[in-house]
Amino acid sequence: MNICPRIEVNLNKIRHNTKVLKELCEKSNIMLAGVTKVFCAIPEVAKEIVKGGVDMLADSRIENLKKLKDINIPKLLLRLPMNSRVEDVVRYADISLNSELKTIESLSNEAIKQNKVHNIVLMVDLGDLREGVWRSDVVDTVKEILKFKGVKLIGIGTNLTCYGGVIPSKENLGWLSELANTIEKEFGITLEIISGGNSSSLHLLEKGEMPEKINHLRPGEAILLGRETAYGKVIKDTYQDAFTFVAEIIELKEKPSIPIGEIGMDAFGNKPTFADKGIRKRAILAVGRQDVSVENLIPIDKNIEILGASSDHLILDVTDVQKDLKVGDEIRFNVEYGALLQLSTSEYIHKSIQ
Questions:
Q1: Could you tell me which of 55, 63, 308, 329 has the fewest CB atoms within 10 Å of its CB?
Q2: Which residue windows are transmembrane per the record (predicted)?
Q3: How many C-beta atoms lie closer than 10 Å to residue 296's C-beta?
Q4: Tens of pLDDT along 86-109?
């Protein structure tokens, strides 16, 4: 008997998507770092991404990189390292993204202790206002990094869309390319990696507008859900349903569509509103907001409407469903990024690898 609630993972579709992305990147001589954080670095899934051709695996959490330690491929730490975790960063990550000299100094000292050379990619803020050194400070920062032993500056990179929503463009990634040229000329070094962002940068590849110097991307959603994230467009020849969420009906009854009584705040401090549609058949599923971003679930049966959720219950309108539903039946959903992230993280959701 299948366990509910569960997330079903189709390894063949993930491997296929990875190959499509790899071929797209290879045409522009771009290295592919497969981001594993949205599925919490389940090793079986990560191995399929590696089979699909990624050049390295990338994650924002050391705990996830630990899971991947036996996969023989370079590991990249995406989130800026914490000073309190430099020992693990050096041990489990071959490369880390950095913007703070204090942290780089700590990594230097720890790498010397571990008799290693830890690779650094300096992050540059091109206007999205998340992590990164401001453009005008890059050369001075590089000058200081090159003084440290135990670490090696192998590249520069940027992140766009994740906070400020700034879309990668030929212009702003062109700034990154120009900075790379300046660094190489100023210090007489060669940068191995010019990392032009995540899945939101892929639209430039498809349009042939990626600056030539960019040679590295860090996609996650594009591989796993087949979408670029600048405009949310489907990537040609990819699957969007490599992950399917399944939950079980625990109550099925006809009820009014408007609560009876004075309306106050719900369990999350919001005051809900309701449309009067008369008596409707409602199904309750055994999953809630503790486990999933409800707004990022898409019922596969188009006749199902998601009404809302509490911490532990997902409420659906199933009045128009053609199938004769009963308690114990399973309802299936496609997932968007936010839902997949929470479902993967929740210990209450069974992971079914297929």
A1: 63
A2: none
A3: 18
A4: 999 999 999 999 999 999 999 999
Question: Under 8 Å CB-to-CB from 276, ≥6 apart: which residues?
Answer: 257, 258
Report the distance separating Cα 144 and Cα 158, nearest Å: 19
CB 124 within 8 A of CB 138: yes
Ordered by start, the domain boundaries in the chain are 11-225, 243-353
CA gap 299, 248 in Å, rounded? 13
Q: Do 35 and 77 contact (CB within 8 A), yes or no?
A: no
Model pTM score: 0.94
**Taking residues 313-334, what's their average pLDDT?**
98
Lookup: tokens for 23? 């071929």
Q: Which fold has domain 11-225?
A: TIM Barrel (3.20.20)
Q: Which amino acid is at 141?
A: T
Q: Report whether 247 contacts 330 (CB < 8 A).
A: yes
Answer whether residue 1 shows pLDDT above 70: no
Of the candidates 13, 19, 22, 37, the residue annotated as catalytic is: 37
Q: Is there a contact between 66 and 85 (Cβ–Cβ < 8 Å)?
A: no
Does residue 37 carry a catalytic annotation?
A: yes
Q: How far apart are CA 81 and CA 94, in angstroms?
A: 13
Residue 8 above 70 pLDDT?
yes
Helices and strands in the chain: count of H runs, count of E runs: 10, 17
Tell the CATH topology of 243-353.
Answer: Lyase, Ornithine Decarboxylase; Chain A, domain 1 (2.40.37)
> Taking all residues of the chain, what is their mean pLDDT, rounded to a whole number?
96
